[in-house]
Specification:
The longest helix has 25 residues. This protein is α+β, with helices and mostly antiparallel strands and 274 residues long. Strand 7 and strand 8 form a beta hairpin. Strands 1, 2, 3, 4, 5, 6, 7, 8, 9, 10, 11, 12, 13 and 14 form a 14-stranded antiparallel beta sheet that branches. The protein has one domain.
Length: 274
């Protein structure tokens, strides 16, 4: 009788161990949303810099939109259009709180030939000690202005090779090819009524050191109105990591915030990107 009891409890213990162990395996779902927030941060920083240069270039240095601030220095080394011209946008050496509620410092420097508004010309942008919200931006942004598309909107083709240094010192490697279109507001001189759509793809390395490729599957939207310009307000991205993880991120439904919804293996996570 005692032998039967010992055998019974041994079997029960073994079953319990296997059950607990199987539960542990089920709970090892990848919940790392770093790549999604990294991609949103990088796309936001570079497209924001492109928009700042456009506002200076198309308006001859007059920031009459949401960045309007007398502390921002905009200089042109030449406007004779016969050789290379340079726009230097200088936010100073200490953080400047701009009217879109973002902190910026350093310089954005863009060179181009002819007039800034000439169709099919390329604007080449580099950065000198430039950061936005304490995120350092480095690299080369080549922006090709394509004029008006069949929908009657200004559009651009951009290529970027650069990196982002987060406030914690970690780096995001970023190479991208995108098409950008002003979806509204480009017919007026007021920058704050603009909206922009972004499509394209990117690849690089996350701040965790994982390689990634990213596709914008539904256009990313930027709204330039007061309170919204600092965010990417909608769009969907698909990400594949070298660690064989696949995820998607929904940037929202035009809400002016930094919250994105990340889906990994059917599980959903709410993530703040700021």
């Amino acid at each position: 009788m005692k032998t039967k009891k010992i055998f019974f409890f041994a079997v029960l213990f073994a079953f319990g161990f296997l059950f607990i162990n199987s539960c542990k395996k089920e709970d090892t779902t990848n919940t790392n949303t770093t790549s999604a927030s990294n991609c949103v941060i990088a796309e936001n920083c570079f497209s924001d810099a492109k928009n700042i240069v456009d506002e200076a270039g198309f308006k001859n240095g007059a920031f009459n939109g949401t960045l309007n601030d007398t502390a921002i220095s905009v200089s042109f080394d030449s406007l004779n259009h016969s050789d290379a011209d340079t726009i230097t946008i200088d936010f100073g050496t200490t953080n400047l709180l701009c009217n879109d509620s973002r902190l910026r410092k350093g310089k954005i420097i863009t060179t181009y030939y002819g007039k800034y508004s000439d169709t099919s010309k390329t604007h080449t942008t580099t950065f000198l000690n430039y950061s936005v919200d304490n995120v350092r931006v480095n690299g080369v942004l080549k922006d090709s202005y394509k004029g008006y598309n069949s929908s009657g909107h200004l559009h651009f083709h951009d290529t970027i090779s650069g990196n982002i240094t987060l406030s914690n010192g970690k780096n995001i490697g970023w190479t991208s090819t995108t098409k950008l279109e002003f979806a509204s507001g480009d017919s007026t001189d007021t920058w704050s009524d603009n909206t922009m759509l972004i499509l394209g793809n990117a690849s690089g390395s996350t701040s965790d050191g994982d390689g990634f490729s990213m596709l914008i599957s539904s256009p990313i939207k930027r709204n330039f109105s007061n309170g919204c310009r600092k965010y990417l307000v909608s769009g969907t991205i698909q990400i594949a990591l070298s660690s064989r993880t696949y995820l998607s991120a929904d940037l929202g439904n035009s809400d002016c915030d930094d919250l994105i919804s990340v889906t990994i293996d059917g599980n959903n996570y709410q993530v703040h990107t700021n």
